[in-house]
Amino acid sequence: MGTALSIEALRPEDWPAVRSIYLEGIATGNATFELSPPDWETWDAGHLSAPRIVGRSESGDVMGWAALSAVSGRCVYAGVAEVSIYVSELARGRGVGRQLLTRLIANSENNGIWTLQAGIFPENVPSIALHERAGFRIVGKRERLGQMNGRWRDVILMERRSAIAGQ
């Protein structure tokens, strides 16, 4: 079952809704090492200016968001970015993540990104499956990468290489 979405550029005024969805992800314990969301200025500085998108319902509510972060400041990695994608609790399992990730991939290629990577906790099976359906492959498991609430966590490293950008 799918949800009709309007996918648009994420704007600063979307931050309260984006932050709320990010908080929902944090609450699962399987979305990020972060324990609280940053303020807008910190989040904005940590993500590429494009692409960053939101999916809006017909009523205009933000149902999910996706953005990219640079993996390195070195120029040789200018076309490599890390994916962040979060879907509202109310919209999970309804195709919102698929629509956002599909658009994020297309927009990233239009912006010269040739490799997308994602670090996902092994327990986040739906996110791993979403990324696999979008053409990502598992390239490894980073064991005991970091501690969260006193517990070591592994991270599955996934990657998608563009057939368009960087050729």
Summarize the structure in words:
By secondary structure, the protein is of the alpha+beta class. It has a single domain (6-161), classed as Aminopeptidase. 26% of the residues lie in helices and 33% in strands. The protein contains four helices and seven strands. It has a seven-stranded mixed beta sheet with strand order 1-2-3-4-5-7-6. A hairpin with a 5-residue loop joins strand 2 (52-56) and strand 3 (62-70). The longest helix is centred in the middle third of the chain and has 15 residues, at 96-110. It is globular, with a radius of gyration of 15 Å. The mean pLDDT is 95.
CATH fold group: Aminopeptidase
Instruction: Give the neighbour order of strands across the main sheet.
Output: 1-2-3-4-5-7-6
**Could you estimate the helical fraction of the residues in percent?**
25-40%
The CATH superfamily name is Gcn5-related N-acetyltransferase (GNAT)
Q: Structural class given helices, strands, pairing? A: alpha+beta
Mean pLDDT: 95
Q: What characterizes the major β-sheet?
A: 7 strands, mixed
Gross geometry: globular
- Please give the radius of gyration in angstroms: 15 Å
Number of helices: 4
Total number of distinct structural domains? 1
Oligomer: single chain
Strand content: 25-35%
Q: Uncertain runs with pLDDT below 50, 5 residues or more?
A: none
Terminus-to-terminus distance? 36 Å
Which CATH class?
Alpha Beta
